[in-house]
C-alpha cells in the first residue's frame, strides 16, 4: 500500500457501451490500477442488455444516463475501498461512446433519426458537401457522452473537444468552428448551447470540490478535455504521422493518421486528438472475422493451421485471381455477396480451396488500402502498421497485410486502449498540450513488437492488383446500384 501511495498518476476513463472502466497510469507510463463496472451485471436495476435498451421499432437504441452516473459512483467507491490514494492524482481525462442526450439517451447503435440525417445533408448541398465540410456524410449522432462525462468531474458544463466534436456533423474540420449551415439545419440557438469547441489537449478546469471532499482528490487535479472512444484509442496505440492501426475483429476497423484528408462518402474523418495540425480517419468493414471463419470452415476443414498452410503455399498476387467476400451487406463499399474474378477479369463461380483462402485475405487488405487512400492516406517510409484483434495472432495473415500495404506490421497490447490513451492524454494536457509533442510524452510506454516485413517484390505485385481490384469493385457496384456518383 505504501508503494501505491507514493505513485503520482493520471486517471484514464472510458464510458463505453457496456461498462465504465478506469486505469491509473504512473509517471513511468505503467498501468498500476484498473477497474470496471459492467452495466448488465453490476447495475441490473436498469434492465439493459448489452448496456442498452432496444425499443420496439427496432431502430431506437438508448441507454439510461443515470446508469452512467451511478456506475461512476460505484467505481469510485470500489477504488476508495481498495485503498487507492486519490491525493496522488495529477489529472484525469476520458473517452465516451458516440451520441448522447438526457433521460434515456440514444447511443451509437440508434438508427431512428435517418430522416433528419438526410435533411441535414440537403441543407448544405448533399452528402458529399457535408462530408467535405464536417468529415463524413450524416450519421445518427449529435451530442456527446465525452463532454457529459467530463462535466461530471468538473461540476459544470464541459466544452466539446475538436476530435469528438468532429464526429457530430456540425464542426468544420478545417477551421475547427461550428458550421452555421449545419447548426441552422438542426435547431435554433444551438451554438449557444454547445459552447466553443476546444483543442483535445486542453485543460478544461479543476476537479469539482465534491470529489475533493468525498474521495480526497487534490484541489489542483486537472480535468483534460474528454474525447471519443476511437480518438482515445488512437492515443492509446500511440499512432504517429503516417501510421495505421488495423483492428481485425468481428468487424475490421482502420485507424489512419492523415496530414491532408480527402473526405468521402465512406468513412469518417476527425480532428487528430494528439496533434492539432493533423487528422485521423476511421474506416469500418463489417465482413471481418466471421467471414474469415466461414472460409476457414469451407476451405480449410475448420483449421487455422490448414488456413495458414494455404497462404504459405500460394504466391503473392494469387495468379491474378481476385475475390470479394461479403456475406452481410458491407459498409465500405455497399456490396453484398461473393464475387470471384480470374486473371482475365472474368467472373467465375468458384476457386480451388487454397486460391479461395488467399483471395479472401488479399481482397480484404486490398479493399482497406484502396479506401484508405481515397481518404487521403499514403504509406510513408516511416509508416508502421499496428495490428490488433483476433486475426492479429495469425502471422501468415499479417504477412499478407505487410505485403499489400508495403509496410512493416507490429503487434501491441491494446487492452483498454481507450482508457490508457485517456491517461496518456491527461499527461499531455498537463505538459502544456499542443506545445509539447505527444510522442515526447509517451516515449516511455512499451514498444510494439515487429512481426512481419514486406516480401521483396510485393509492391510491384500489389500495385497492379490494387488498380484491378478498384475497377472490379466499381463494376460490381454499378451492377447492383447503377453507376457511381
E-strand count: 22
Structural class assignment: alpha+beta
Low-pLDDT segments, ≥5 res: 1-5
Compute the gyration radius: what is it?
23 Å
Helix count from the secondary structure assignment: 18
Rounded to the nearest angstrom, the distance between the terminal CA atoms is 63 Å
**Percentage of residues assigned to helices:** 25-40%
Shape: globular
Largest sheet entry: 7 strands, mixed
Rounded average pLDDT: 89
Strand-residue fraction? 15-25%
From the structure provided, what is the oligomeric state, counting identical versus distinct chains?
single chain
Please characterize this protein's 3D structure.
With 485 residues, this protein is α+β, with helices and mostly antiparallel strands. 37% of the residues lie in helices and 20% in strands. It is built from 18 helices and 22 strands. The strands form 5 sheets. Strands 1, 2, 3, 6, 10, 11 and 12 form a 7-stranded mixed beta sheet that branches. Strand 4 and strand 5 form a beta hairpin. The longest helix has 24 residues. The radius of gyration is 23 Å and the shape is globular. The chain starts with a helix and ends with a helix.
